[in-house]
Amino acid sequence: xxxxxxxxxxxxxxxxxxxxxxxxxxxxxxxxxxxxxxxxxxxxxxxxxxxxxxxxxxxxxxxxxxxxxxxxxxxxxxxxxxxxxxxxxxxxxxxxxxxxxxxxxxxxxxxxxxxxxxxxxxxxxxxxxxxxxxxxxxxxxxxxxxxxxxxxxxxxxxxxxxxxxxxxxxxxxxxxxxxxxxxxxxxxxxxxxxxxxxxxxxxxxxxxxxxxxxxxxxxxxxxxxxxxxxxxxxxxxxxxxxxxxxxxxxxxxxxxxxxxxxxxxxxxxxxxxxxxxxxxxxxxxxxxxxxxxxxxxxxxxxxxxxxxxxxxxxxxxxxxxxxxxxxxxxxxxxxxxxxxxxxxxxxxxxxxxxxxxxxxxxxxxxxxxxxxxxxxxxxxxxxxxxxxxxxxxxxxxxxxxxxxxxxxxxxxxxxxxxxxxxxxxxxxxxxxxxxxxxxxxxxxxxxxxxxxxxxxxxxxxxxxxxxxxxxxxxxxxxxxxxxxxxxxxxxxxxxxxxxxxxxxxxxxxxxxxxxxxxxxxxxxxxxxxxxxxxxxxxxxxxxxxxxxxxxxxxxxxxxxxxxxxxxxx
Length: 569
Prior knowledge:
31% strand; elongated; alpha+beta; 30 strands
């Protein structure tokens, strides 16, 4: 029996191969497969047609595990709203670019070039370049001949330069200094300004840190009963308030002048309009008044326009108070320790005892010259200069023995005048002796002139008209021999440097916009770059000067001495 198909095979000589059954089985299998293929194709076409129809009708066909499954599905509707029919939405917007910055710049180009040519002998040009480390060769005979040839010419020029004064006073300054004057402080007391009081005097204390001012009036009228003030500010105090003085002293009469003690930093002497002389201690807040002269036959009868502290000529070396008044008296006071100023000595300027080197205007013989200003020599404490109402400038001495023909008073007064200088054409408001020369001094008056005098002759060395109005103050710099300042009635402070020019001021300072007069000036003794100026509007301005006005040159004292010697000749 054959295999599984039922066919039997026989081999041999007489064997027959029977395969009909096997072929039928194979044909049957093929037919069966073709039938399945036909069914699949027929059904497949039908299924594909139905799938396409379902696809068109929105039905999804799913094929799962070789089978086709169909389900109905209703997708969610999506609506899109039209926007073109809605009202347009508007909004405002601002766009700002960054700020445009502008700047102007100037460029100046300077082009310079220096060219020099040195010819050399042919043999030198043919030499090779020398080694930098090698020492240069020197032709000693040629150098010696050259030095002998130029030595007479160089010696002549050096000798001529040593005798020349072309560069006298010149000093090389390798650092540029600011040539400006700046205002550091503007001080005032509101109560005094409300009453329209003037600053009649300013003074620095011995330390240079405190400035005091006197409030009063310089106008015509009887102000003897008007209340006034003495105020001080400590400029070194932290948190300085320019409208709140460190010390305020109420005074019963207008204060016309004041001066700090040369040793005690808190003692202040002042002269009043009613003729009194007072001394205050600014460190005492409850009762600063420590001494007063009172009113008697020995005291002044008219306003006191000058007070100073002077050292006694006796061995005690005590410091006294000197006062000068328009009643013609110059009085010296001593504090007795019990609140009283006691008269020690005094002088009187009477017409009949004036020196006759200058012709005086017609006046009664017993007339007294009213003293408006006074200054002691810095190098001779027995000599002082007095300016009087009649325009005269007088040289006086404290060592005179001639008594004045004046009967009243417990202390006999002396006649100090020794020499009369050429007068101003009006009252003299200020005099100041030079701190660097014993014979030179300045004076200023209502004629608008500043006179530079030498004590050796009557006529002024120099006369400058600084203003068409009055001049109220003039003072020398404490560090520059040729520099001085003057205060005008037009509201300006003029600073002159005689080493540069005697005709034009080195600096002109406008004190106030309303051009009110400047009544007083004071250089700081410890800080020479500070200058205090008191105004008619009740304010005190502290100015800081440039180094050019405070640094002494190498030949300034010599130039000042030459100026005095030329006058003396």
